[in-house]
Design brief:
The protein is α+β, with helices and mostly antiparallel strands. The chain is built from 2 helices and 6 strands. The chain starts with a strand and ends with a strand. The structure holds iron/sulfur cluster (SF4). Iron/sulfur cluster is lined by residues 13-19, 35, 55-57, 59-60.
């Protein structure tokens, strides 16, 4: 089971590209100009926390998935 889950409120993305600049491993700008994560279930957070912290409209959320399946929101 993945250790982290990313939730992106895409409808609120302002298309500034900060996440893709800071974390190109997992964030891309789509043809409509809005960002999307390549993967939403991760074993390793990598640069995703930096992207979430830098998002100016705070629409990238990260949940840690515990062994019992419960989730804790990190951001
Ligand atoms: S940093 Fe936030 S607002 Fe900017 S492109 Fe990424 S998700 Fe959208």
């Amino acid at each position: 089971m993945a250790k982290y889950r990313i939730v992106h409120e895409r409808e609120s993305c302002i298309a500034d590209g900060v996440c893709a600049s800071l974390c190109p491993d997992n964030w891309v700008i789509e043809d409509d100009g809005l960002a999307s994560p390549l993967k939403t279930e991760l074993d390793d957070l990598g640069c995703n926390m930096e992207a979430a912290q830098a998002c100016p409209v705070n629409i990238i959320h990260i949940y840690e998935i515990k062994e019992d399946g419960s989730e804790v929101q990190l951001i």
